[in-house]
Write a structure and sequence with these properties.
Elements (H helix, E strand, L loop, with lengths): L16 E3 L7 E7 L9 E9 L3 H12 L7 E2 L8 E9 L2 H6 L8 E9 L8 E14 L2 H14 L1 E2 L12 H14 L4 H8 L3 H25 L12 E3 L5 E2 L7 H9 L3 E7 L13 H10 L4 H9 L5 E4 L1 E2 L2 E9 L2 E9 L4 H8 L1 E2 L1
Helix pairs in contact: 4-6, 4-9
Length: 358
C-alpha cells in the first residue's frame, strides 16, 4: 500500500522541514458556506469553534443535548481534530434545541452564533475553507521555503487527498477492504453482524477513503509523467471553481484548451472510482484513459468493491489553486502561512509541496 510520502511531487521532494500542530492555534480553519442562512425556517444553523474534537464528535454532542437523532444533525465538511476549527452545523428546530444550545459549550467547544434556515445543512454546502497555519522549528533557508511558496502561487498545487482521509497508518484502507468483503461476498454470520453495526457515517468515510486513495494514485502518475496540467486526448475537464465537467468538442482546438488550462480557467480531472453506466457523459478515453487504467491496475479489488457497492463514479480536479496565499516570518524558525482553498481541498497537500512536516 503506497503511503502519502511516496506520491509524486510537482518537482522534487522538499529538503526543508517544519513542525505543524504543536498547539491547536497553529492550525486554524474557518469554514465559509456557499449561501447565507435565511433567518427563518425549521432548522437551526449553529456556527461552532472546536479544538481537540472531530466533526462527528461535535455532531454527536449536539444530538445528545438536544435529543435529536444523529442522522438529523447536519454539517458541510469534516474538519481536523487537531486544530482550531470553526464550522457550521444544523439541527431540527425545537424548544429543546434552543434551550439546550448553551449546554454544549465547554473548554473545547464554543457556539459562535446561530441562525434559522429552511433546510438541513448538507455535505458539501460550503464554498471554501480559510487557513491560518504556523510552521515551527523550520529547518532550511528562508529562500527555499519562499521559492516553493511562490511556485505554488504560480502553478497551483496537486489536489491530493490528505493524510486525514486515510487514518493512522492508512487504517481506513484496510478497514474498507474488510467492509467490501463483508457487504459484497458471502460473509460469516459473525462478520455480517459486526459490519451491520457500522453506522452510515463511518461506512461513508471508509468508502470515501477508498476512492480518495485511488484518485491519488492517478494524480501521482500524471505528476511523474509531467502532464498533470497538460491536455491529453480523452481528458475530462473541470470548469474552475465549479462541480461542472465537460469533454472538449470536436471543433475545440487543443492549443485553445491548453491556453485555458494555463490561465486556470479549467483543470484536468481524475477519477473518483465507482460504477459507471451507459448514460455517463464524462468518461476518459484514448491516452488519458490508458494512464488511469495503468495507474489503477494493482487495485482491482478496491475498484470491484466500489462497483459492487453501487457507488456512482464521478470526477475531481487534479489541480487546485489557493486564494490569497500570503506568508510571513514570525521569527527565524517560525513561518505563518495564510490562504483559502475550495471545499474538498487539503491544506496538508499545500504544505507537502513546501516542506516535510510532522
Amino acid at each position: 500500500m503506497k503511503q502519502i510520502e511516496e506520491l509524486s511531487y510537482v518537482d522534487t521532494k522538499p529538503d526543508t522541514s517544519g513542525e505543524i500542530k504543536r498547539k491547536f492555534s497553529d492550525f486554524k480553519v474557518d469554514e465559509y458556506l456557499s449561501f447565507d442562512p435565511t433567518g427563518c425556517g425549521d432548522h437551526l444553523f449553529i456556527k461552532i469553534k472546536k479544538t481537540g474534537l472531530t466533526t462527528v464528535d461535535v455532531a454527536k454532542k449536539i444530538s445528545e443535548v438536544t435529543g435529536s437523532k444523529l442522522s438529523t444533525i447536519g454539517y458541510s465538511g469534516m474538519k481536523d481534530k487537531y486544530g482550531e476549527c470553526t464550522q457550521w452545523f444544523s439541527a431540527p428546530l425545537s424548544e429543546s434545541v434552543s434551550r439546550s444550545l448553551g449546554s454544549i459549550e465547554n473548554a473545547n467547544l464554543n457556539v459562535v452564533k446561530s441562525l434559522r434556515n429552511q433546510r438541513k445543512l448538507r455535505i458539501g454546502s460550503h464554498r471554501k475553507n480559510q487557513f491560518d497555519i504556523t510552521l515551527r522549528n523550520c529547518i532550511g533557508s528562508r529562500d527555499k521555503f519562499e521559492t516553493r511558496l511562490k511556485l505554488v502561487q504560480e502553478r497551483g498545487l496537486p489536489n491530493y487527498y490528505g493524510t486525514q482521509r486515510f487514518g493512522k497508518n492508512m487504517q481506513n484502507i484496510t478497514a474498507v477492504s474488510k467492509l467490501m468483503a463483508a457487504e459484497t461476498e458471502a460473509p460469516s454470520c459473525a462478520n455480517k453482524r459486526s459490519f451491520n453495526k457500522r453506522n452510515s457515517i463511518e461506512r461513508g468515510m471508509l468508502i470515501s477513503a477508498a476512492r480518495a486513495y485511488l484518485f491519488n494514485q492517478v494524480l501521482s502518475a500524471r505528476l511523474k509523467m509531467k502532464n498533470w496540467t497538460t491536455y491529453l486526448p480523452g481528458d475530462v475537464l473541470n470548469l474552475n471553481g465549479t462541480d461542472s465537467y465537460f469533454l472538449p468538442g470536436k471543433d475545440d482546438q487543443e492549443d485553445i484548451v491548453q491556453q485555458r488550462l494555463n490561465l486556470f480557467d479549467i483543470h484536468i480531472s481524475g477519477p473518483l472510482a465507482g460504477a459507471s453506466c451507459s448514460k455517463d457523459k464524462y468518461i476518459t478515453s484514448a491516452k488519458a484513459a490508458d494512464i488511469e487504467t495503468k495507474s489503477l491496475r494493482s487495485y482491482e479489488t478496491l475498484l470491484d468493491g466500489l462497483r459492487k457497492l453501487n457507488i456512482s463514479a464521478s470526477r475531481r480536479p487534479l489541480r487546485t489553486k489557493p486564494e490569497n496565499l500570503k506568508w510571513s516570518w514570525i521569527d527565524e524558525t517560525t513561518l505563518n502561512i495564510h490562504f483559502s482553498l475550495r471545499k474538498g481541498c487539503y491544506a496538508t497537500s499545500l504544505l507537502r509541496e513546501i516542506c516535510l512536516f510532522n
